[in-house]
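Problem: given the chain below (235 residues), write out its structure.
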Amino acid sequence: MRLMQLDRQNVAFPSPESALREPNGLLAIGGDLRPERLLAAYQRGIFPWFTPGDVILWWSPDPRAVLYPAELHISRSMHKFLRRNPFQVTLNQAFADVVAGCAQQRAEGTWIGEDVQQAYIQLHQLGYAHSIEVWLDGELVGGLYGLAQGSLFCGESMFSRVSNASKTALILFTHHFVTHGGELFDCQVLNDHTASLGAREISRRDYLRHLLDYQKQRLSPYCWQPKMLYPYIPT
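Solution.
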């Protein structure tokens, strides 16, 4: 099976079902990161992931890692931590800083180069991408960002500069998301961190079925308005 070389003038993608088995999920190469192409990718369950400076690689892995909100696992120690939560948690108040934090917090290197950062900042400015920020004494110490697809949220990356910051971001965001009608958190590829919070793998076919269903659901615009998530301040 040959990989599709994307045309810079055409944002169409091949079927995710045609992705390679090895490396798992590699679907296409090339193209660009302009908003139209990124949105077309996410609408079909595809995301970019590549080394800065190299050709853009597009993926749709099978299986796919997801977190069903009802299966969110909060350990006993995390419950104890949250009862004395020292953080302030906000939504959509420092998107560019969160993306930069995710790019920096990788000892093994990062795929979030300057071009990727600018591409997602554009999506944020257009109202598609969102961030959750975790603050300690006024300093950004953790967070996550991703892209909304109706009632499905495609998580892209998270970072933590102090213990439990990224877990707090995911837990409080999940509560907020569900409160406003959110159904599923896409984790892309399972890792120890997301697995410890309850994420699990489902088939690509099931993921694409969820995506098609949840894209049709529209959350209240209030869901994404910049706000304080914790401590909660009634409006």
